[in-house]
Design a protein that fits this description.
heterodimer; A: Glutaredoxin; about 45% helix; B: about 425 residues; alpha/beta; Rossmann fold; de novo design (two linked rop proteins); 3 domains; five-stranded mixed beta sheet; about 10% strand; globular
Chain lengths: ~160, ~425
């Protein structure tokens, strides 16, 4: 979608600030907020660039650097941690060859450690973009990654 | 053998969450019609006499909150805000409510708004809950089409607009004043309290903030009356409560039971007992910002009054079960890492303190018995100072789990 169309969907009411940043980030193929977008958002709401930058930098779902097409957010909060999330993060690291916070060189996957995702009934759990994967094991994790590699060319 | 008592979750998994027709056919929106037939004062009175207490963690009487907001909103703009920023580790009941029966929340919001005379409402949902956002948005759209939202609702002369806003990953925004900051498009930093939201809330106007589960109770209280509501639960914690049970149990999940349920009955009868069949080692009640209890508390009745007597908390209803074969030090470290990550940095004691006590907890791993006892003492003392010198519940929370760990498990921690 063209950036201008996204802006026109949100009135300059500041209650729209977070939702607009989400929409802008989701629209970018690399799932992040560019400097240019932040400036445009500051103009849209009539606030300073430092305000927008402060907001974008505060919330963990926003990124100021390019990320992969699939954002893998592994919950590492107390319940998931107790049920084995550290092993899941390590296993992901060896499958993808990256650490938490990094993106694969092909630009397909970014792994992030997340705080409680509210899916503790299926711990250890993770989200890939907006989809939840729970009761993870090393085996099921491999299957998920294989599936995503196959799906990569299809629209979500 | 106890069983679930499904009131709020009565239709969850039964009706289609995308269909307003199925919600109406199952009796939905009739409480709204009943409320609109009476006066706003009737709504507030009914909620006060029901004794409903906020289900978001603090347990504050909902009717009193409503009365405070209603009293201040006369002749001025006021707001009703739903706190759906469910981020407490181990808590996932609001997600289940929103995903399985979003119209119940929408109806509860409209009733609350009528009670306090608010013309505008927001549901602030955490950004990670994409399914909840979509389903509640759909429910709002359908509700507008049917005339339950918008101008002159059901010919009553009362008008109310409702919108969803969402967060972007911040535990702190679940605290009501921080939530308002976020809703105003700012960083999630806590505000100084007082003034309370009922006095100066969103955009400086009187604001009623309630949790999802609290609001979802309103249609039933209006429909069946406060004495019906008081027929379940305990005297000072009437009604049902949705518990989120996780950890080492056979059937983790969200379960609705009468308030005052016995802890072990909840774990054994409802959640299928522990995974390995042995008595549990500890239960963390209320999530990371909650309290640890040992097995000698298995007969504990889960209601605010009994919990308080025994130095425990209920929070938003998280029950994290720790099996007999687990160690507590890694869990403690994980809790402290969580607070370190989520501290916003506004208050220095919390910013530095959460990092410091987490570091100290890591030192416990390789240490011997005596050193562990000393480290735990240091951690608890620091957390206590931090609680005194921090503005919001984040800096005030770690002491709860730490103090109860020290009280009930210091030997275990030192030996494991």
């Amino acid at each position: 979608m063209h950036q201008q169309e996204i802006f026109s969907g949100f009135s300059p009411d500041r209650a729209n600030l977070l939702p607009l940043l989400h929409a802008l980030q989701d629209n970018h193929p690399q799932n992040y907020l560019t400097g240019e977008v932040l400036k445009a958002a500051a103009r849209h709401f009539g606030v300073s660039l430092s305000w927008i930058y402060g907001v974008a930098g505060y919330y963990s779902m926003f990124s100021l650097k390019p990320r992969g097409r699939y954002i893998i957010r592994v919950c590492n909060s107390p319940v998931c941690n107790m049920m084995g999330s550290t092993g899941i993060i390590e296993a992901l690291g060896s499958i993808l060859g990256i650490n938490a916070g990094e993106t694969t060189p092909d630009g397909l996957f970014t792994v992030e450690e997340a705080e409680c995702l509210g899916i503790c009934d299926v711990a250890p759990a993770m989200m890939v973009n907006r989809k939840v994967y729970g009761n993870l094991t090393h085996e099921s994790l491999g299957d998920v990654i294989d599936e995503l590699r196959i799906l990569k060319n299809e629209p979500e | 053998m106890i069983r679930e008592k499904r009131i709020l979750l009565r239709n969850s998994g039964i009706i289609d969450p995308w269909s307003i027709k199925e919600y109406i056919d199952s009796g939905g929106y009739s409480a709204l019609a009943k409320a609109l037939d009476g006066t706003p004062g009737n709504v507030v009175e009914e909620v006060i006499s029901s004794g409903l207490r906020g289900r978001g963690g603090a347990g504050f009487p909902t009717g009193v909150k409503k009365q405070a907001a209603a009293g201040r909103s006369a002749g001025t703009t006021s707001y009703v805000v739903c706190n759906a920023d469910e981020g407490e580790p181990g808590t996932f009941k609001d997600r289940v409510l929103m995903e399985s029966n979003p119209h119940l929340l929408v109806e509860g919001m409209i009733i609350a708004a009528f009670g306090i005379g608010a013309e505008k409402g927001y549901i602030y949902i955490r950004g990670e809950y994409r399914d909840s956002i979509e389903r509640v948005q759909n429910a709002i759209d359908q509700s507008y089409e049917k005339g339950y939202l918008g101008r002159d609702i059901l010919g009553s002369g009362f008008s109310f607009d409702l919108e969803i806003k969402y967060g972007a990953g911040s535990y702190l925004c679940g605290e009501e004043l921080t939530l308002l900051e976020s809703l105003e498009g700012k960083r999630g930093y806590p505000r100084i309290k007082p003034p309370f939201p009922a006095e100066r809330g969103l955009w400086g106007k009187p604001t009623l903030i309630n949790n999802v589960e609290t609001l979802a109770n309103l249609p039933f209280i209006i429909e069946h009356g406060s004495s019906w509501f008081r027929s379940s639960g305990t005297e000072r914690t009437p009604g049902t409560k949705i518990f989120s049970i996780s950890g080492d149990v056979k059937r983790p999940g969200s379960y609705e039971v009468e308030s005052g349920v016995i802890l072990n009955d909840l774990i054994n009868d409802i959640a299928g007992g522990t995974r390995n069949g042995h008595p549990w080692k500890a239960v963390l009640l209320g999530g990371a910002a909650g309290t640890f209890v040992p097995y000698s508390f298995s007969d504990l009745s889960l209601c605010y009054e009994r919990l308080k007597e025994r130095g425990a908390t209920l929070g938003s209803g998280a029950v994290i079960v720790v099996g007999s074969d687990r160690k507590l030090i890694p869990l403690m470290q994980s809790i402290l890492r969580f607070f370190m990550h989520e501290s916003c940095g506004k208050c220095v004691p919390c910013r530095i303190g959460t990092e410091y006590i987490h570091g100290k907890s890591l030192q416990m791993t390789g240490a011997g018995f005596d050193t562990r006892i000393i480290l735990l003492e240091e951690i608890v003392n620091h957390a206590r100072e931090m609680a005194k010198s921090s503005l919001c519940p984040l800096g005030q929370s770690p002491i709860l789990s730490l103090e109860t760990l020290q009280r009930h498990f210091s030997e275990t921690l030192a030996r494991e």
